[in-house]
Amino acid sequence: MVSQGTDRSRPRLTVLAGPTAVGKGTVAAYIRHHASNVVLSVSATTRKPRPGEIDGVHYFFVDDAEFDRLIRDNELLEWATVHNSYRYGTPRKPVEKALADGKNVLLEIDLQGARTVRSHMPEARLIFLAPPSWDELVRRLRGRGTESPEEQARRLRTAKVELAAEGEFDAVVVNDDVARAADRVVHLMTGSTIEEQHLHG
Ligand code: 5GP
Fold it and tell me: What distance in angstroms lies between residue 47's CA and the mean position of ligand 1's atoms?
């Protein structure tokens, strides 16, 4: 059972979602490094690590059999097949433990996962990370250069559908600048900015 405490105006479980390539991962990484009072959930995934990604830090990289086991043993809070290819899921126990310890928890997950969390935990806050414009989103997706042209086209089709979901969210943060966007997310979660947290220890 996940408790959200008594302060209903500020839920401690926050979901950050948004269209593909909007920079969710970058904003989440910024928060991981700069906001000590926010716990970032580490997802399990069946995709292979990209260069520089560390098992247990960026993801838990697992094979299909292990992902099947996680589902079977009810160890995932939510999971989804993203971009019709790999499976991604939020390990349940670390999230429940952090919430029980009174911490603010952030899930950086896809839209399907955000909807699952909403249906199971209506008290969670959903933040939509939006691109400054459609053209900027296309530019970011092409610029990343980690996906094949076919994969890029597929992700852009997904992004169009995902952009239309903005209205389902409690708050919208525009990712015009990573540090500023991260600051707005942290402010929504904790009531103070990253800079204020550093000033006040
Ligand atoms: P990437 O492969 O680029 O790291 O992530 C692909 C997508 O998977 C992103 O949209 C990311 O938000 C999503 N994702 C990462 N972890 C999870 C998770 O635990 N659950 C769900 N539903 N989506 C996730």
Answer: 10
Sheet holding 104-108, edge to edge: 38-40, 104-108, 13-17, 125-130, 171-174
Identify the residue whose C-alpha is closest to ligand 1 atom 17: 109
Pocket test for ligand 1, best of 13, 20, 43 (most atoms within 8 A of CB): 43
Mean pLDDT for each 10-residue chunk of the chain (201 residues)? 48 92 93 95 97 95 98 98 91 96 96 96 96 93 80 86 94 97 97 82 60
β-strand partners of 126? 15
The model's pTM: 0.90
CATH of the domain at 66: 3.40.50.300
The tally of domains found in the chain comes to: 1
Structure token pair of residue 117: 């969390």
What residues make up the domain containing 96?
A: 2-200
Q: Is 112's C-beta closer than 6 angstroms to any atom of ligand 1?
A: yes
